[in-house]
Target: Phosphoribosylformylglycinamidine synthase subunit PurS
Amino acid sequence: MYKVKVYVTLKESVIDPAGAAATKEFKNSDYPEVEQVRVGKYIELTIGDTSKNVEEAVHDMCKNLLVNTEVEDYRFEIEEAAAK
Model:
């Protein structure tokens, strides 16, 4: 069994309205040192034993279901997890 942590972020060239709003709030609060905020997604998957290569399977899941690769980048970490 595997635990997979997927981190999805907007590509640098894509405008991030949520990040811009958060940046503005930081500037207007007690944290003016925060220069920029980019907002993304964190997705956690638990994958059972599979005959497929886990890394290839996660790439496929990201490209086909979890990530809009036109505007988002992703990275992931795979950990072996104890079966319950």
Notes: The chain has a mean pLDDT of 94. Residues 54-66 form the longest helix (13 residues). The chain is about 30% helix and 30% strand.
